[in-house]
Amino acid sequence: MLSTVVGALVMGLIFNGVVDAGIITDSSKFYGLMSVPFWQHLIIGSILFGAVFMATDPVTASQTNKGKWIYGFLIGFISIMIRVFNPAYPEGVFLAILLMNVFAPTIDHYVVQGNVKKRMKRLKVKAA
């Protein structure tokens, strides 16, 4: 849950930074949602509902601890991107959850492989 909120806040901060830097002007079609304060993205739509009740589904979510953080962060990150860049689909939380449910096994696979490599290095150091 916390990682989803962190991902949404990071994406909101990035968009606010882009607007503050002058990269996106008020004549751009993306200016409206990019200029929204980063914390308001949490209360505008259903991102908190999705983070608390839908992204935490134990069957489809990532199973490793590190994978859960990556999974949640990317849900928040992608949901704000969908909200800003796709005016036809203003609430991107559920699409982001669906996309990350597809990639959850891949995230777990790479997290487990990283742990295996770390343990193999540790084993080689002890054996030497």
UniProtKB/TrEMBL annotation:
Keywords: Flavoprotein, FMN, Membrane, Phosphoprotein, Translocase, Transmembrane, Transmembrane helix, Transport. One of its GO terms (biological process) is transmembrane transport. Signal peptide: none annotated. One of its GO terms (cellular component) is plasma membrane. It comes from the Bacteria. The chain crosses the membrane at residues 37-56, 68-86, 92-112. InterPro entries: NqrB/RnfD (IPR004338). PANTHER family: ELECTRON TRANSPORT COMPLEX PROTEIN RNFD, NA(+)-TRANSLOCATING NADH-QUINONE REDUCTASE SUBUNIT B. This is Na(+)-translocating NADH-quinone reductase subunit B. It comes from Nonlabens ulvanivorans.
